[in-house]
């Protein structure tokens, strides 16, 4: 059972949020937690049945929700969905760009169109939706430098910080998403007071992404992939989303919050603490000892 939220259930009261990719996984949990913290939510996705099931789930938890079918890659879908949210709920305060595409493929087997498809969903989709939402996210008038406009939250990853097997397309796409986050934070933060931030989740249990990236056909468990694996819950990402989109995050703009239990920093411990305690100071002491002329000569060569 998920822990209780540490936030008051009114921190998002009166806000209207649109979550792309909100029909399942992390996006649905964000929609659910936004609703439980007072927001009205619209979820966007490509499959109507998935949206219908998600809206029923949200409503069964007392969340006021609508599902709007559309593809983030299509400019017309983006405008139609954003306009419908405003028609139905009267405004738009928060846009979460959660829609993403992913599959495992070796770089040499990936067609340029396969590469483009993921760039289109993740990077172009994030920009297209943000662009369509801009007119409604501008609050407090143009030219305001205080951060009192709407909020954009982009869901990213950590794999682009280094490199990842069979993920060249996703890595390139998420690097672009992070770049969009920072550039919108600069331009729209300055001009319109819109805060744009990102969340970079690590592996999260019970999500479509996880089942795609560790397919059961592989016969592998999480521990086979990395001994340092730390698996988060969708709740962990949703709480970070509540923090960044509520007034708790009112001075945060252009940040990309890694929510992965520190996994991306993990590396094998190459020597034990006991060994370091044993000889760490001995090595240091030796390094301060005067060197004999022959050793000094050798170290110069
Ligand atoms: N391996 C290699 N190439 C693949 C592939 C795979 N598993 N899946 C799709 N492609 C390629 C296709 O071959 C095609 O390229 P081509 O025209 O050169 O043959 C290209 O990608 C587009 O495929 P298509 O099936 O037409 O794309 P789509 O728009 O219908 O679907 C996907 C997009 C492929 C990203 C699909 O997985 C998707 O809809 N994902 C959304 C959900 C998701 O991934 N969630 C997890 C998020 S972490």
Written description of the protein model:
This protein has 301 residues and is α/β, with parallel strands linked by helices. The chain has one domain (16-268): 3-Layer(aba) Sandwich (Rossmann fold), CATH 3.40.50. The chain is 46% helix and 12% strand. It contains 10 helices and 7 strands. It has helices at residues 25-36, 48-60, 75-89, 112-137, 168-192, 208-213, 222-225, 234-245, 273-288, 293-300; strands spanning 16-20, 40-45, 65-69, 94-97, 151-155, 195-201, 256-259. The protein has a 7-stranded parallel sheet with strand order 3-2-1-4-5-6-7, with helices on both faces. Helix 1 packs across helix 8, helix 3 (75-89) packs parallel to helix 4 and helix 4 (112-137) runs parallel beside helix 5 (168-192). The longest helix has 26 residues, at 112-137. The protein is elongated, with a radius of gyration of 23 Å. The model is unreliable at 140-145 (pLDDT under 50). The site of coenzyme A has 14 residues, from helix 4 and helix 6.
User: How many separate helices?
Assistant: 10
What is the architecture at the second tier of CATH? 3-Layer(aba) Sandwich
CATH topology: Rossmann fold
CATH structural class: Alpha Beta
Sheet with most strands = 7 strands, parallel
Average residue pLDDT: 93
The level of helicity is: 40-55%
Describe the global form: elongated
Order of helices and strands: EHEHEHEHEHEHHHEHH
């Amino acid at each position: 059972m998920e822990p209780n939220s540490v936030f008051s259930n009114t921190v998002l009261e009166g806000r209207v949020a649109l979550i792309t990719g909100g029909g399942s996984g992390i996006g649905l949990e964000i929609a659910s937690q936004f609703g439980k913290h007072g927001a009205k939510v619209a979820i966007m996705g490509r499959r109507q049945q998935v949206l219908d099931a998600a809206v029923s789930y949200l409503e069964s938890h007392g969340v006021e929700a609508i599902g709007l079918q559309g593809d983030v890659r299509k400019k017309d879908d983006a405008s139609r969905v954003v306009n419908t949210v405003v028609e139905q709920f009267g405004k738009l305060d928060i846009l979460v760009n959660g829609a993403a595409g992913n599959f495992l493929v070796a770089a040499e087997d990936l067609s340029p169109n396969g590469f483009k498809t993921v760039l289109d969903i993740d990077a172009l989709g994030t920009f297209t939706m943000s662009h369509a939402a801009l007119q409604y996210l501008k609050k407090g008038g143009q030219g305001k430098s205080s951060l009192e406009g709407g909020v954009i939250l982009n869901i990213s990853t950590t794999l682009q910080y280094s490199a990842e097997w069979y993920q060249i397309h996703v890595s390139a796409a998420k690097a672009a998403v992070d770049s969009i986050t920072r550039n919108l934070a600069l331009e729209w933060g300055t001009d319109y007071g819109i805060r744009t931030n990102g969340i970079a989740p690590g592996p999260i249990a019970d999500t479509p992404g996880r089942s795609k990236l560790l397919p059961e056909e592989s016969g592998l468990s999480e521990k086979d992939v990395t001994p340092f694996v730390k698996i988060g819950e969708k709740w962990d990402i949703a709480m970070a989303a509540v923090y960044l989109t509520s007034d708790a995050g009112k001075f945060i703009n252009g940040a990309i919050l890694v929510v992965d239990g520190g996994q991306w920093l993990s590396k094998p411990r190459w020597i034990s603490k006991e060994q370091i305690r044993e000889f760490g100071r001995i090595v240091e002491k030796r390094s301060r000892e005067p060197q004999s002329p022959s050793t000094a000569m050798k170290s110069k060569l």
